[in-house]
Write a structure and sequence with these properties.
This protein is of the alpha/beta class. It is globular. It has a four-stranded parallel sheet, with helices on both faces. It folds into two domains: 31 residues, no CATH class; 109 residues, Response regulator (Rossmann fold), CATH 3.40.50.2300. Helix 1 packs across helix 2 and helix 5 packs parallel to helix 6.
């Protein structure tokens, strides 16, 4: 047995529903509305955003996913205003952020700030590197959902490592 593994099966919070404020309960209700049998993740995002009354969706993607981001923008663009920003925005020299690094650095904070300036209602992360996705979510003013997770070994399917 792994001494570092803690499995929680019960709740110590006597009134767990009290943790959810009105906005949280509203988002939970919208998430329930968005769930449709056989709907893909993009359909769920669109249903959720429409139910929330959101009109403007931001897409923050890795440049390696530019084609997929364009397709997503086309698909969602039928119903929403879309702002897309790739990870190399502002073309920061990698050396400026990580000593000894070469090339152009990703700029996840810049992506979040640009989408905030554009007043997006919801942001979608697509293939951002680990760590960059954390920074993007931390600095995003709009809620963030992830559509694609970068996983170089498993073809961007991290669940494959668990099989």
């Amino acid at each position: 047995m792994n001494p570092n593994l803690v499995t929680v099966s019960g709740c110590n919070e006597p009134d767990a529903p009290a943790l959810y404020g009105d906005q949280d309960r509203h988002l939970m209700a919208l998430a329930a509305i968005a769930k449709v049998r056989d709907a893909d993740r993009i359909e769920e995002i669109a249903r959720f955003a429409a139910a929330a009354g959101w009109k403007h969706i931001g897409i923050a993607c890795c440049v390696l996913f530019s084609k997929e981001a364009k397709r997503l923008a086309q698909r969602l663009g039928e119903h929403f205003r879309i702002t897309h920003v790739d990870c190399k925005i502002c073309r920061i020299a990698a050396e400026a952020l990580v000593p000894g690094a070469q090339g152009i650095s990703c700029n996840p904070i810049g992506q979040a700030l640009i989408l905030a300036t554009e007043c997006t209602d919801l942001n979608i992360a697509m293939g951002l590197c680990f760590g960059h996705d954390l920074l993007f979510a931390r600095h995003s003013q709009a809620p963030v959902t992830t559509l694609i997770v970068k996983d170089r070994r498993h073809g961007n399917n991290p669940a494959a490592a668990l099989i």
